[in-house]
Amino acid sequence: MALQSWWENIKFQFDLNFVQRNRWRFITTGLGNTLLITLLSLMLGVVIGVVIAGVRSTYDKTADSARPTFGRKVLGFFNALCKVYITVLRGTPVVVQLMIICLVIFAWSDNGVALASLAFGLNSGAYVAEIIRGGIMAIDNGQFEAGRSLGFNYLQTMRHVVLPQVIKNVLPSLMNEFIALLKETSVAGYAAVRDLTYGGNTIAGQTYSYFMPLIAVALIYLTLVMFLTWVVGRVERRLRSNDH
Amino acid sequence: MTTDVLIRVEGLEKHFGGRIHALNGVSAEIRKGEVVVVIGPSGSGKSTFLRCLNLLEMPSAGKITFEGVDITDPKVNINLHRQKMGMVFQHFNLFPNMTVLKNMTVAPVTLHKKSREAAEVLAKQLLERVGLADRAGAYPNQLSGGQKQRIAIVRALCMEPDVMLFDEPTSALDPEMVGEVLDVMKQLAREGMTMVVVTHEMGFAREVGDRVIFMDGGRIIEQGTPEQVFEHPENPRLKEFLGKIL
Ligand SMILES: Nc1ncnc2c1ncn2[C@@H]1O[C@H](COP(=O)(O)OP(=O)(O)O)[C@@H](O)[C@H]1O
Ligand SMILES: [Mg+2]
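Above: the input entities. Below: the structure tokens describing the complete assembly.
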């Protein structure tokens, strides 16, 4: 008897939260936005990360051999700038950065998805930069020297010798950053951006029942993360199996 | 052996961080076709000297002239001159993500010294000569230490350099593999390659060295033919050094 009424209740809740008034759409739209924000911010993060890692590691790698030219000073300036960027972006909560971007700097805009992508991308860039820089610094200096001794200039050595090895080494870390980002974007609602979590919250606000919408949201995150983790595992195994 | 000077080093100094003086005024000449062997105790500046020759280390002071060009001049494009100076490292430094053939051809092809076809023809000839023709498709981690070093030598040769610099090329090898690498170097010397070799292999120095340079404390203390240096050393520090290693 109790079981039956429990089951009836579940059916009722499901109907109320997802079927009535097509409320499932809050979930699907939110999921779409979450995926879009994650993807766009990762792309932005990689671009920023590559640039910063390039500046930082070029500055470090050329410290011994460089002549104190004007170019070197310019590089030093950008190096310092990158350090500040990394310190600030990693030293403050991403949700605060998000709110500053959405509610202060771009308060006039209501393109929530774009602004959230910008905010998470800027933040992710700081982390990606350190992942890539770590990957570059992990390459044995002998590889640089071998490249340079053959007559490659700095950029050619990077492109033909170092970066192919770096990409292989950091690909799993970058994919893990993508997974972390997917979960991190769940705070987008603080700036009224309609992501997956916000969708679940909206339903709950209308139906006054939190259980179903939030469990649904959690299950969707979990499924995505488990799937992506499985993909990372496969990629890692692939990379290791043709490890030379 | 002609007497044309290929590399002239004048008053070379190298300081690391102001306090470590790795080189304290080294002057030397490397002539075309000459095999110069550099010996000396650990930390005496041998590697630094060698690495300054192709500006892998930027000299703190002094002048290096290679083929008539002052390569320490900031206006000189050092990359072009490095193409003419092959270098072989203690730890091989092969590119682990490339096959042997790619290791050898990536520089000549990318730097437009040769077409891919021409580079591969030369690479295969060189592999043949060092007895590794069957390893063209292998990756470095599939090779023994001796094989790796032989590949590193022919990789440098693929750029058709005018001089080869060796920094302790056999020091990281198991004893049974030293011979195969030295044989390749001897063959190279016989073919008239100009070579500067930092090594502890005194047998090699005696057999193929035209000149032996003894360094200590960042200076050239004594130099001469192998006969002079090994049989009639004059400087007490050289005598002491030879007493320890011979
Ligand atoms: N990159 C470096 N930074 C600081 N000190 C160095 C560096 N390279 C070499 N040295 C120092 O310079 C001196 C000469 O070193 P090196 O030329 O490697 O000697 P060798 O090859 O004869 O053993 C040593 O005291 C060494 O510690
Ligand atoms: Mg050394």
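Note for the figure: The interface with chain A takes residues 54-58, 74, 79-80, 82-83, 85-87, 89, 91-98, 106-107, 110-111, 139-142, 152, 155-156, 159 of chain B (CB under 8 Å).
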